[in-house]
Inverse folding.
């Protein structure tokens, strides 16, 4: 019994020792666990701090994004208003250009009309003041079988003198047919001086045995002219200038090509046997 009790005591003692060791191990583990728990808490705290920081950053980022969105929308509004303003400005500019173009056209048109009116006034003044030389009369001095002699009298009906008068050509001729005007005037170049306003200038046409300027072709055709089988004409052309100083072709003899540079008188006279006088032909009587 004692032995059994001793065995129990030993067993109990051994178990107690084992439990004590086990308790020590558990106590160590507990300390380790407590240390690990502390580290875990610290890690959790750090994570919480990081999470809080991240949350704050996310909030800040969201706020920045919202502000950026607001600013973008504000910028878009400003851009839209600027575009509207620019569109309106462009439209005003187009309207202003149309108005300016219209005004320019109106000014140009008014200027053109004014210039035309001025040109017409100047032209009218020049025409009113210039010399005008025309045939005044053509009296017959002598006309029979023995000779022909007449005058061509010119008058300056203008308001200013005619100067540098040139008889470029004149002729008397007999035609077998009646004509309307003169096509060919034999050229000559005879200076006749000047002619004051309302003054007259006389040219002599003659064909006589003493002065057979036309070889007797006129007075020898007296009977045919008087019975109407032939016709007598006197034609010519004068160049002249006025006080504006119109000139010819560099001092060379004048020709018909110089006509645009000069004041010009052309004349054609036809003998009328019914009244024994000269009258004007249907054509070739002109003053330019």
């Amino acid at each position: 019994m004692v032995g059994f009790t001793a065995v129990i005591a030993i067993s109990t003692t051994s178990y107690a020792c084992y439990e004590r060791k086990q308790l020590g191990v558990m106590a160590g583990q507990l300390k380790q666990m407590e240390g690990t728990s502390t580290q875990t808490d610290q890690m959790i705290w750090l994570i919480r701090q990081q999470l809080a920081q991240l949350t704050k950053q996310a909030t800040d980022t969201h706020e920045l994004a919202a502000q950026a969105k607001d600013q973008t929308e504000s910028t878009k509004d400003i851009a839209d208003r600027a575009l509207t303003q620019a569109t309106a400005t462009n439209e005003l500019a187009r309207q202003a250009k149309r108005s300016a173009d219209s005004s320019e056209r109106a000014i140009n048109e008014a200027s053109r009309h004014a210039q035309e009116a001025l040109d017409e006034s100047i032209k009218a003044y020049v025409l009113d003041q210039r010399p005008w030389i025309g045939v005044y009369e053509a009296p017959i001095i002598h006309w029979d079988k023995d000779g022909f002699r007449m005058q061509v009298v010119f008058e300056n009906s203008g308001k200013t003198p005619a100067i540098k008068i040139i008889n470029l050509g004149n002729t008397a001729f007999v035609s077998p047919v009646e004509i309307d005007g003169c096509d060919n005037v034999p050229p000559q170049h005879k200076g006749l001086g000047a002619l004051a306003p309302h003054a007259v200038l006389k040219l002599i046409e003659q064909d006589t045995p003493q002065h057979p300027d036309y070889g007797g072709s006129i007075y020898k055709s007296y009977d045919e002219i008087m019975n109407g089988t032939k016709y007598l004409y006197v034609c010519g052309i004068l160049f002249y200038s006025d006080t504006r100083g119109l000139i010819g072709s560099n001092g060379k003899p004048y020709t018909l090509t110089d006509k645009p540079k000069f004041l010009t008188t052309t004349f054609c006279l036809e003998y009328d046997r019914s009244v024994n006088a000269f009258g004007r032909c249907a054509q070739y009587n002109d003053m330019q």
